[in-house]
Amino acid sequence: MSISLETKRTNFRKLHEEGTLILTNPWDIGGLRRLEKLGAKAIATTSAGFSWHLGREDFEAAKEEVLAHLTQLCAATDLPVNADFQSGFADDPADLAENVKQAIETGIAGLSIEDRTGDQLYSPELSVERIRACRQAIDETGQDVLLVARCEGLLTGTADMDEVITRLKAYADAGADVLFAPGVMDKEHIKSMVDAVAPKPVNVLLLTADMEIGALASLGVRRFSTGFALAQSAWVGFEVAAASVLQQGHLPS
């Protein structure tokens, strides 16, 4: 690579300080190369996309496989990489902290940690303790890695918007650099999230075509990501083409 890891991490932090950051989510080096050519400033991994790449469902990849995946992507690009590290592959804050340190060794510039255990959320108290442990672990390494705290309450259907915002505020106070609640779509809710954790940036997951970046940026959102959308689009296209050949005898027109 032509730039140092320190520079990649510095660049990533600067991308969060002003303007709008759009994170696309590849799951292999081929996709990464295409995003580089399209002008991506940084990328984020996708747990679902990587698991599908392995022929499994989301959350079925082992920690060691995810760490190897992160190492491979980080080594292949000058772009900063934000890791989808799911719930950190541990419940206990001390174990989570050790896993975070292992993730940092892969060369990532940012790290997303979820507050879910299966289809439920950790208690608010344990969730905050886990974010504090992540913050301490990052600080102990001396590396400038951004900590992204994710509240999964909307995706799991286990928390309303008020609880989600309360959790995000607590995670911000516990040391998270970026706050993220995938599943939020309502503009008033997004604005409330932005205001609640300001001046720290909020990440919004793009879920539908009418979630327009310019309009959401006007509400104060500074970071956007595509999650599994690119992987889903690729696999849908694959299946349509394959079904046309196998069932109709020709490639799709």
Automatic annotation (TrEMBL):
Family matches, as SUPFAM superfamilies: Phosphoenolpyruvate/pyruvate domain
Keyword Lyase: yes
UniProt cross-references to Pfam families, sorted A to Z: PEP_mutase
Keyword annotations of the record: Lyase, Metal-binding
InterPro entries the record matches: ICL/PEPM, Pyrv/PenolPyrv_kinase-like_dom, Pyrv_kinase-like_dom_sf
GO MF annotations, alphabetized: lyase activity; metal ion binding
PANTHER family: CARBOXYPHOSPHONOENOLPYRUVATE PHOSPHONOMUTASE-LIKE PROTEIN (AFU_ORTHOLOGUE AFUA_5G07230) (PTHR42905:SF16), PHOSPHOENOLPYRUVATE CARBOXYLASE (PTHR42905)
Name used for this protein in its record: 2-methylisocitrate lyase
Origin species: Endozoicomonas elysicola
